[in-house]
Amino acid sequence: QVQLVESGGGLVQAGGSLRLSCAASERTFSTYTMGWFRQTPGKDREFVGSIIRYAAITRYADSVKGRFTISRDNAKNTVYLQMNDLQPEDTATYYCAAGPIASIDPTNQQRLYNYWGQGTQVTVSS
């Protein structure tokens, strides 16, 4: 059982930056594909970005490509989401998730992620 705890959310003005962190309890963290997703009230949860176990391959949603960067530190059991040039439409609750083990595909399919954090709120004011 992997426990995930997100942090780093908050209120920021448009054009600003935030870095989200997700700490995992599992010592085999390095084997998991890790993903970030977000959700706003009344909408489905959507994919933001993902990274395979050794960080060689990442994937991003088109809406964040070029602005967000996902990275991981396997020694610290932590995955990060650096968010730059934030816009009001980025306002959401952000979730990290642990997905397929030993995969070379940074999947964006939510159904393949087995463990989820509680989420952290990001609010971007205009």
Describe this structure in words.
This protein is mostly beta strands. The chain has no helices and eleven strands. The strands form two sheets. Strands 2, 4, 5, 6, 9, 10 and 11 form a seven-stranded mixed beta sheet that branches. The mean pLDDT is 95.
Total strands: 11
Global mean pLDDT: 95
Name the poorly predicted regions.
none
- Helical fraction equals under 10%
Largest sheet: 7 strands, mixed
- Strand/helix succession: EEEEEEEEEEE
Structural class: mainly beta
The portion of residues forming beta strands comes to: over 45%
Helix segment tally: 0
Task: Give the distance, in angstroms, between the N- and C-terminal Cα atoms.
Answer: 40 Å
State Rg. 13 Å
Overall spatial form: globular
Q: What is the fold's blueprint, element by element?
A:
Layout: E1 4-7, E2 10-13, E3 18-24, E4 32-39, E5 46-51, E6 58-60, E7 68-73, E8 78-83, E9 92-101, E10 115-116, E11 120-125
Parallel strand pairs: 2-11
Antiparallel strand pairs: 1-3, 3-8, 4-5, 4-9, 5-6, 7-8, 9-10, 9-11
Write a brief structural summary.
The chain is 0% helix and 49% strand. By secondary structure, it is mainly β.
Summary keywords:
single chain; 126 residues; mainly beta; globular
